[in-house]
Amino acid sequence: MAGTLTNSARPLPLSKEQAGWVTRAWSQIDEGRLAELNRQMASIPSPTGEERELAQFMASYMNACGFSAFYQPIDENQGNAVGKLSGSGNGVELLLYAPVDTAFSGKAEEDCPWVGLTVPAEMTTEAYIKDGDVIGLGAENPKGYAACVVGAAEAVQRSGIPLKGGVVVGLGAGGMPTNKRPSIHRFNAGQGSGCAFMLEQGIRGDFAIIAKPGYAVSWEEVGLCWFRICVKGSLGYTGVRHVVGGRNPIVDAAKIITLLEEWFPKYSQRNTSGLVCPQGSINAIEAGWSYKPAFIPAVCNLYVDLRISPRTSPTEAKHQFEEAIREIRRAHPELNLEWDMVLAIPGTATDPASWIIQSCMRAWEYVEGKKHAPRQGTSGATDANILRAWGIPTARLGMPRLKNSSKEQRPVFSMETSNVSGMKQLTKCLVYAIIDTCTRDRAEILKGG
Length: 449
Known about the structure:
- The structure is a single chain.
- The chain is of the alpha+beta class.
- The chain folds into 2 domains: 16-221 and 348-447, Zn peptidases (Aminopeptidase, 3-Layer(aba) Sandwich); 223-345, Alpha-Beta Plaits (2-Layer Sandwich).
- 35% of the residues lie in helices and 20% in strands.
- The chain has 13 helices and 17 strands.
- The strands form 5 sheets. The protein has a 6-stranded mixed beta sheet, with helices on both faces. Strands 11-13-9-14 form a 4-stranded antiparallel beta sheet, covered by helices on one side. Strands 4-5-17 form a 3-stranded antiparallel beta sheet.
- It is globular, with a radius of gyration of 24 Å.
- It starts with 15 loop residues before the first helix and ends with a helix.
């Protein structure tokens, strides 16, 4: 079963020659070069829907490193970068994938006040390196991971290792969980749109590794469903509320928020299995006029992000949410609300016995010198769901959260600080997986997973 916990890798030692190739490729991983690439990437704006400049830069960088690389346009502002290392043709093809778009723009007019009253210094494109960290907008997630993907393939290329299977580096646009940003015209700019376009246009692999947070090999992750709740009230005015009465939908929405917050833990407990513990949260509210708060709006909209297990379909999640709303209505018949599901991306899983999962666990154990243990209780979603939905067995692996040279530990939620030593650890794991996978005959790989 895809949700079965597998604590360590199935043994398959490297040959003496392969082990030598790993050592040789690891010697080509230059922390300074990796950090500088990460800094340059974090210095180029790439909010969802506007990744063209960064993708073109990365295509040029990979070409200069000896890849066969190109920019893949999606529209005038958005596109992917693709780089290829060819094999002899009798091995499997491995796709190393990472998105490159940032969740935030770094612009006060779009991000504030929701990221803070002003844009934090670390959330700008004035990226820098300090105490072994690269700091800047998206420096860790996603750009540190993308730098590791490129750095691993570059180390293998510089080492002159004879590959049987090809390596494809895919740097995708539109990976963040977002719909249309205010400044762009295309609605479907996020939610894995760049990844899906890349696959649709023939950029694929027999297996894939996606570099995203979590320093353990993951073979499954949650999907997500978004719901809009429309809470209805009466258009009114503060000056006469005591005379005409009526319901304030903002006040009723506050009651619904409290009730849903009580329901979310029950939902999580009901749907926890395997590696996932799906969470729910109310993360956006629409109501009223900020420039004329003398008037009571007739409607207040709430937006719910509900994560779903690979073993729970979006339709089943919708039914569970419907049960919760029905209970709220039963207990509070005075509330007037409507709701609908406005996004549905299924969770996905790859069999943990698959070659690529086992290879990545072997890589992790080779680097760390101890048995692999999977992370449980996860609720993050990535483009791994897109890769798997298109039929590609996919492993997810991130970098460790290491302290910098000043002994500072990053916050639990941080996308702007990328530790260079942690990047090197991930890059070493990726190098091992490339050599383990792409220097064997195709028949051996397919027989092994």
